[in-house]
Design a protein that fits this description.
The chain is an alpha/beta fold. It has a domain at about 10-35 and about 95-205: P-loop containing nucleotide triphosphate hydrolases (Rossmann fold), CATH 3.40.50.300. It has eight helices and nine strands. It has helices at about 20-25, 60-65, 85-95, 105-115, 130-140, 145-155, 170-185, 195-205, and strands at about 10, 30-35, 35-40, 55, 70-75, 80-85, 100, 120-125, 165-170. Strands 2-7-1-8-9 form a five-stranded parallel beta sheet, with helices on both faces. Strands 4-3-6-5 form a four-stranded mixed beta sheet. The longest helix is centred in the C-terminal third of the chain and has 16 residues, at about 170-185.
């Protein structure tokens, strides 16, 4: 793999696991950029278009699918669509930066198939009770929605073995150290640095 190709870091985890906060911590590292997903869901009051998501209509989303513009896409909860535009991978390569994707399990599995060198991190809550407490603390969901999110969390966590790393977010400082260490360590993988290593070997005459 050429050193010019970006490191792709995938971060997944149940709603309420704290994955968005940990993505922000990864983005504090120099040389990283966020892939902004497209979604057909309505923005929440606190959300700005273009920061974490680009909000599009279902028609616009399906046109993007037809044009082959997504690295991955999936329908979540049987209603809203989410997708990762390929343009972010191209932009990361052009800028020689590492790309961070915050996507769900379906999307992560698609990306790992297409980009086997991508590094996948799964963020887990310390317990079901703690996850329920966090979801309730947001005050955004009905009882039915809370129950659905908890069941979806259970189903998502069954896929933990498909990920390269698991980070249990019971202490934010430690979890931050974990995800940043994974990012730094992944930058040092031999496959990613093969071209540079070969250049160094040439300087030794072999």
């Amino acid at each position: 793999m050429s050193s010019a190709e970006p490191l792709v870091l995938i971060v997944s985890g149940p709603s309420g696991s704290g994955k968005s906060t940990l993505v922000e911590k990864i983005l504090e590292l120099p040389g990283t950029m966020l892939s902004v997903s497209c979604t057909t869901r309505q923005p929440r009051k606190t959300e700005t278009n273009g920061k974490w998501y680009n909000f599009v209509t279902e028609s616009e989303f399906q046109q993007m699918v037809a044009r082959g513009e997504f690295l991955e896409y999936a329908q979540v909860f049987g209603k809203n669509w989410y997708g990762t535009p390929k343009k972010w991978l191209d932009q990361a390569q052009a800028q020689r930066e590492d790309l961070v994707l915050e996507i769900d399990v379906q999307g992560a599995l698609q990306v790992k198939q297409k980009l086997p060198g991508a590094v996948a991190i799964f963020v887990l809550p310390p317990s079901r009770a703690e996850l329920e407490r966090r979801i309730r603390a947001r005050g955004q969901d009905s009882e039915d929605e809370i129950a659905r999110r908890l069941e979806r969390a259970r189903q998502e966590m069954l896929n933990y073995s498909s990920y390269d790393f698991a980070v249990i977010n019971d202490d934010l400082r430690r979890a931050t150290d974990d995800v940043q260490s994974i990012a730094r360590g992944s930058r040092c993988r031999t496959a990613r640095n093969e071209q540079r290593i070969r250049e160094i070997l040439k300087s030794f005459g072999g």
